[in-house]
Amino acid sequence: MSLIVNPSTLAVIAELRDTPLALVDDVVERAQRAQRTWARLPQRSRIDGLRRIAELVRANSEELARIETSNVGKPIGASRAEVSMVADTFDYYAGAIDKFFGQTIPVDGGMDFTVHEPIGVVAVIAPWNFPLAIAAWNVAAAIACGNSVIVKPAEITPLSICKFGELISNADLPDGLFQVVLGKGPIVGTALTEHPGIGKISFTGSTETGQTIMRSAAGTMKRVTLELGGKSAAVIFEDADLERVAVESTGAVFGNSGQDCCARSRILVERGAYDEFVKLFTSATGSMVVGDPLDAATTMGPLVSGNHLDKVESFLDIELDVVAPTEAPTGPGHWMSPHIVLNPPRDHRVVREEIFGPIVTIIPFDDEADAITLANDTIFGLSGSVWTRDVGRAIRVSRGLETGSISVNSSTSVRLQAPFGGFKQSGMGRELGMTALDGYTELKNIFIST
Ligand code: NAD
To answer: What is the average pLDDT value for the chain, to the nearest integer?
Structure first.
């Protein structure tokens, strides 16, 4: 039995039973049956099915957002935006089904063409920071391609995906097309990654767990998409609009309490602008409101759990120059205020490891080459920003950074129409956009002799 806790009050909000291992075979068999039915349905019926899911999410969006906020602790506005993106994702992939097609290939002696076939059953293993949105990206693309899905949410944040499952049981989909299993990663998660009836694992979580999953999936040659950790940089040049960058950067590093794989947790500033930027950023951070995530004025909620809070606080080495310009509540809850670490040694763990909490480092750089070297000096490569008014430099630096997505003069990382994923140890494969569909299908080549 797992107790699910609200991280801003520490109240127990649910008690859930883990899925017994003995049931996993039944879950997979149901998923296989559903998949065969789903893949044989007319394209129009599958498009309508995805549209109905989008409608059900929209019709219940406030309830889903409140569940997400009470389970994860994120501000209610952020949860509403997340739920809205979930509905949009199902609409997007409903529209993609009849626009994803193969090629006709010129060959001698006949006609050669490719078709995309579903993989079968896809297991989606999800993290706790965006429990509904990240699962939904995977689920929507997987079922659009004719697969069925089994979702295993993170142990501490299963509530929104369970509610989603309840809602879409009214979407008139084949029984077992979407199922949720609950429990610990190394137990129920491993039962999925090792199961011969599952064809693909879509995993989002830490790099360490990603390595374990890849090893485990190798036993049955499962396809894997891995969306892993990050240590993204915002590279800020002197000619940028520093006031705007400072304000937007607070969201880019402290949004979701810094528990964001794309958090720009390293801010690199051209030396001539360093002092001015530190002043502006400290002042913008001082205006953040840390508190009750259901209050519309709140800009940052608690951290997700006590264990995670301890891990994040362990980065605050006494030797570091740290500023914390705003207060966090002192009552029950996993509270921590935003912390800014000024010019730490470049090899300190606060600069090198993923913190996944409200701690940012600000580091000066000398020139374009130094900025690129510094930004790339990490095992990760997920996201990043470049701030400059010089278009040539924006392109040069964007091309120089070893990372899956870059925003110029923006802090955003995810647009559901565009591919998203990591270089280096930030992952493998891409989610979102039309590109994701390649990861949920097998490519079949057919030759017809003439
Ligand atoms: P985690 O790796 O601890 O857990 C993620 C999921 O994997 C959970 O559901 C967990 O139960 C499951 N799991 C754990 N061990 C397993 C095993 N041996 N076999 C199968 N499943 C197992 O990650 P987390 O702490 O939930 O999430 C935070 C991490 O996720 C951070 O590193 C963050 O950067 C990363 N993340 C990446 C992205 C991205 O898109 N790249 C997005 C969000 C989060």
So the answer is: 98
3 state SS of 264: coil
Contact in structure between 61 and 55 (CB atoms under 8 Å): no
> Which residues lie with the beta carbon below 6 Å from any ligand 1 atom?
125-130, 134, 152, 154-155, 185-186, 189-190, 193, 204-206, 209, 212-213, 227-230, 261, 354, 356, 382, 422, 427
pLDDT digits (tens, 9 = 90+) for 241-289: 999 999 999 999 999 999 999 999 999 999 999 999 999 999 999 999 9
The set of long-range contacts for 1-6, using a CB threshold of 8 Å and a minimum separation of 24, is 2/155, 2/156, 2/158, 2/182, 2/183, 4/71, 4/156, 4/157, 4/158, 4/159, 5/156, 5/305, 6/70, 6/71, 6/73
Query: Catalytic annotation on 227?
Result: yes
Helix axes 159-168, 43-59, angle to 10 degrees: 130
Token reading at 308? 């995670």
Closest protein CA for atom 10 of ligand 1: 185
Count how many Cα atoms sit within 13 Å of the Cα of residue 307 in the half-sphere of its side chain: 2
- Comparing CA positions, the residue from 206, 189, 52, 202 lying closest to residue 141 is 202
Model pTM score: 0.97
Closest ligand 1 atom to Cα of 230: 34
Res. 1 pLDDT band, cuts 50 70 90: confident
Provide the token pair at 338.
């935003």
- Strands 223-227 and 427-428, how do they pair? antiparallel
The DSSP string of 314-341 is TT--TTS-EE--S----SSS-----EEE
ipTM above 0.90, yes or no: yes
